[in-house]
Amino acid sequence: MSTSSIDRYAVAGNPVAHSQSPYIHQQFAEQTGQLLQYERLLCPLEAFSSTVKNFANSVDDGAVSRGCNVTVPFKFEAFKLAQSHTPRARLAGAANTLRFDQEGWLADNTDGAGLVRDIQDNAGVELAGAKVLVIGAGGAAAGALGALLAERPHTLVVTNRSLDKAQALTHNHSAWAENHGVQLHTRPLQHCGEHFDVVINASSSSLQGGEVPVAATVLRPGGLALDMMYGAAARGFLHWAQEHGAHGRDGLGMLVEQAAEAFAVWRGVRPRTESVLTSLRIKFATP
Ligand code: NDP
Question: Ligand 1 center to residue 202 CA distance, Å?
Fold first, then answer.
C-alpha cells in the first residue's frame, strides 16, 4: 500500500446516485484505520469500459485509483475488462469488484458471499435443504447463484422475464449444482412454483418502480422474501411479502456484507459489519 498518496476507489454503474457504497467504505476505512477516497462513477450505458479505464488511469490531486465496485447493469462487461478472475467470478461470468493490479486487472464477485452471509448469519435462515427461488438472471443473480448452491439447498429455481437468460445461467451452473447435490431448474415467471422457503428478488423490478414480477403463491408463510434493493424502492416488495405472511428483508445486509468482502480484496483486512448495517438501517428507517 502506498504511504505517499491516497488510494482511490469508486462504484461504477447507471444509475449510481442511490448507491450507499461510498458511505459504507468510508466507515470501513475509519474502522480499520486506513486512508482512502471512494466516489460514485456514473457510466453512460454505451461507455462503461472507457469511463472505468479513464478512472483507473487518472490521478486526482495525488489520489491514485486502485479499484472499483461495479453495479447495475455492467457486471458482465466488468468481467470481460479484467485480465485475471477469481474462481467465483469465473463461475458467475460477472464481476462486482475490480482491482487495478499493475500486472493486470483482477475481477472478483463478492455478491454471492455477501448474500449468503446476510441470509444465514444476519437473518438466521438456513439454506441447507431449503427450497429457493431466485427472480432475475442479470449480473446480481449470476453473482449469487454459485454461493447459494454451495450451501446445498434442496432445490433452486431461477425465473426471469427473459427466459433464455435464466436458462443460460442455470446451464452455466449445472455441474456446480450437481456437485453440491442441488436440483437446479429454470421456470417462467408465471409458473415458477409455489411455497418456497427463501424467495430472492435479484431483478431490477424494484429499482425501476415495477410490480413484483411473480405471484404471491411463491411465498410460504414464515418463509424469507429478500429483495436485493433497499430504501424506498424496496418498500413495495417488503409490503407484498409481509401481506402474505413471509418475512420481508431488503438488500442492505447483502450490500454491507458484499462491500466488506470487496474491502478485504482491496485492503487485505476484513472489516466488521454490524455497526455499519445498524447505522444504515437507521438512515433508511421509514419516516
Ligand atoms: P442487471 O441489469 O444485470 O439485470 C437486471 C435483471 O432484472 C434482469 O434479469 C432483468 O430481466 C430483470 N428485470 C429488469 N426489470 C424488470 C422488471 N420490471 N420486471 C422483472 N424483471 C426485471 O442488474 P443486476 O442484476 O446487476 O441488479 C439487479 C438488482 O439487484 C438491482 O436493483 C441492483 O441494485 C440490486 N443489487 C443489490 C445488491 C446488494 O448488495 N444489495 C448487489 C447487486 C445488485 P431481463 O433479463 O428480462 O432483462
Answer: 5
Residue-level pLDDT at 60: 76
| Mean pLDDT value of segment 260-284 | 96
Is residue 116 domain-shared with residue 247, that is, in the same domain? yes
User: Positive or negative CA dihedral for 235, 240, 244, 248?
Assistant: negative
pTM score: 0.96
Specify the pLDDT at position 4.
64
Q: Are residues 116 and 188 in the same domain?
A: yes
Rounded Cα–Cα distance for residues 3 and 223 (Å) = 49
Claim to verify: residue 151 and residue 69 sit in the same structural domain = no
Q: Any idea what the CATH number is for the domain that residue 62 is in? A: 3.40.50.10860
What is the average pLDDT value for the chain, to the nearest integer?
Answer: 96
* Closest C-alpha residue for ligand 1 atom 29: 204
Tell me: do 54 and 150 sit in the same domain: no
**Which range marks the domain in which residue 55 is found?**
7-109+255-284
Q: In the structure, which protein residues have their CB atom closer than 6 angstroms to any atom of ligand 1? A: 72-73, 75, 111, 114, 136-141, 160-162, 165, 202-205, 207-208, 210, 213, 228-229, 251, 254-255, 258
Same domain, residue pair 96 and 142: no
Range from 60-64, 217-221, 277-281 carrying the lowest mean pLDDT = 60-64
The answer to whether 6 touches 15, Cβ cutoff 8 Å, is no
The pLDDT of residue 72: 94
